[in-house]
Amino acid sequence: MNKGELVDKVAEKSGVTKKQADSVLTAAIEAIMETVSSGDKVTLVGFGSFERRDRKEREGRNPKTGETMVIPATKVPAFSAGKQFKEMVSK
Known about the structure:
There is one protein chain. The chain is about 45% helix and about 30% strand. By secondary structure, the protein is α+β, with helices and mostly antiparallel strands. It has two domains: about 1-40; about 40-90, IHF-like DNA-binding proteins (HU Protein, Chain A, Irregular). The strands form two sheets. It has a three-stranded antiparallel beta sheet. Strands 3-4 form a two-stranded antiparallel sheet. α1 (about 5-15) crosses α2.
């Protein structure tokens, strides 16, 4: 499912226009990204949590040359599924 299909489904389930559903979905995604990028956690009970995690510096290899190189530390987004979401998927 892509964003357009998700917008269609949200509009159908909520009884709003596709344009309204698209603007709400876009605003929600932007709010989550802004919050997580600032270092805070977003928790949607039953669905899951979005947070920023630190990835340590590590050693890797250049796939072309096989030469070892250092991959610098960075911050990455992470998602942890909630209990209700996990149960729904496992059925």
